[in-house]
Amino acid sequence: MQGGNTLLHHRLARAPDRDTITTTRGDALRTAALAAGGAIAAVTAVGAAERLNAAPSPEQDVQVLNLLLLVERVEVAFYEAAIENAGLTQELQEYAETVLSHEQEHVSYLENALGDKAAPAPQYDPSGVTGDPDVFAKTAARLEDIAVGAYNGQAANVTPGAFLAAARIVSVEARHAAWIRSIRDADPAPDAVDVPYSERRVMRELRAIGLAS
Amino acid sequence: MSDDRLNLLELDVDGALAEAHHGLTRAGFIVAAAGAAVAGLAATTGEARAAIPASDQDVLNYALVLEYLQAAFYTEAERAKALSGRPAAAAKVVGAVERAHVQAFRDLLGKKAVGRPHFDFRGVTESNEAFLKTAVAFEDLAVAAYKGQARRIRSRAVLTSALGIHTVEARHAAWMRYLNGNLPAADAYDLPRTRPQINEIVASTRFVVDRPQSASKRTPRYTG
Prior knowledge:
heterodimer, A: mainly alpha, 8 helices
């Protein structure tokens, strides 16, 4: 267990850093390990976490990162199916393909960070909401809002290494949310502060949009 | 919420901060195990009286200056009445949100809040094209600035609030990029910027000035 947790920390240290912004693939992530490790050492406390088990710990990071991995995997499955089946317009197609590539990178990153502690991928068929462009767009808007809420809701529960990695992802999810809302002519930023979602709420909302059982 | 103001310590719609709040209202919220200086601070309205670490106050004041900058920019754009169509509508909505951020930080900081700087936006609020280009730059900058500071925040409540604002700035960034014809989300990861980097970029705009002045052709200019 101890060895596994040390490994997790090591993997988290491979957070994408500024030098790798244009090539944030697996091997580029690894090159950032030293820089990110230095940043982690400079951080002594993120905050007291009472929401999950206790203060942030490597064990709790596994739990949190698996929740975030689940959300990212749902996103990948959703966009893959939609690109295949939804008959997307050009603007939605560009959105879906761009966002899919981001979510695939996020999945790879989180899977790599978790190693053998990564939970099995959920087996859920998203075809109910990926066969029609309007249903797709509406569902995508809600899904991206859920992703933002999931990351924001867990930020204070993780150790600095996981925090730094998640912080680089969450604002991209927010950009996706505003992008699809713009396409739909909905308010891209309806609240002054985005609300953090608990794990329970994340799962409830995924079920509500037909993307979890 | 009271007086329709955004209360950052009451951002608890889903109960995610319930225990942190309980700590805040019960005994003051102290998280620094190593005994970092904790300054007493009368926070916001209602019964909440928060003890926010001095280092968090510093981060909040830094964020406040960025919010002043954005609020002044959008408010001037709205008042100048030179924008049209979707950019005009966006300026109005985003301006209201940035002003809410300013007020929330000022409420949170109380007497510790820094004052509003003077701004001169040099006419960039007076055409859709210049406005959008500047807005994209401001919002991408704000995202990077919040991300750069987030890990310094010790208070759990302040951290969660700051991150919730961070993602709103990212939404604004994507929105302005969309209106400007840029890809709203260009990369899989957004990267942080340090304070010196942010300060250098802000200084390079020469939007922050020593005393009230304006190169703007239109009045009234927004002075807060």
